[in-house]
Design goal:
This protein is an alpha+beta fold. The protein has three helices and five strands. It has one domain. Helices cover about 30% and strands about 20% of the residues. The protein has a five-stranded antiparallel sheet with strand order 4-3-2-1-5. Strand 3 (about 90-95) and strand 4 form a beta hairpin.
């Protein structure tokens, strides 16, 4: 009985830790400098945000994260546009070239071509679509 309780506790704690890591990427709080970060983002990232705003609202809402971990340049991460579809997330360089797809797709692991030194949990959210969204995915 004690062994089962310990295993259950480990599973619960592990789940909370994993959820906590991914929680930032799906629901992360934008920093107070969100507007400044978008203002200083490259023109192509601003255009990407503008394009997202002209489309149907994503579920979960679209977000853009920024990190500085790749060849001394900024990277921008856009998570998948839906929870339960095969849509892949995108990792862009500062010129909006897609570097890789970190997650999503049929396996949930993206294209598995991302550089090993890129840690998405160290990225900060710079923009979140605050339009009201529904409970279904539309393309």
């Amino acid at each position: 009985m004690t062994r089962v309780f310990v295993m259950l506790c480990v599973l619960v704690v592990t789940g909370i830790c994993l959820f906590g890591l991914n929680h930032k990427l799906y629901y992360g709080q934008a920093s107070m400098q969100e507007d400044d970060a978008v203002k200083t983002a490259p023109a192509c990232i601003k255009k990407l945000i503008s394009t997202i705003q002209t489309k149907d609202v994503w579920n979960p809402p679209a977000r853009v994260f920024k990190g500085s971990h790749y060849k001394n340049s900024d990277l921008y991460f856009v998570p998948s546009r839906c929870f339960d579809c095969d849509s892949m997330s995108q990792l862009y360089d500062e010129n909006c070239n897609i570097i890789c797809h970190p997650s999503g797709g049929p396996t949930g692991k993206g294209d598995e071509k991302c550089p090993t030194n890129v840690t998405l949990n160290e990225f900060d959210m710079i923009w979140k679509d605050d339009r009201k969204h529904g409970y279904y995915f539309t393309s």
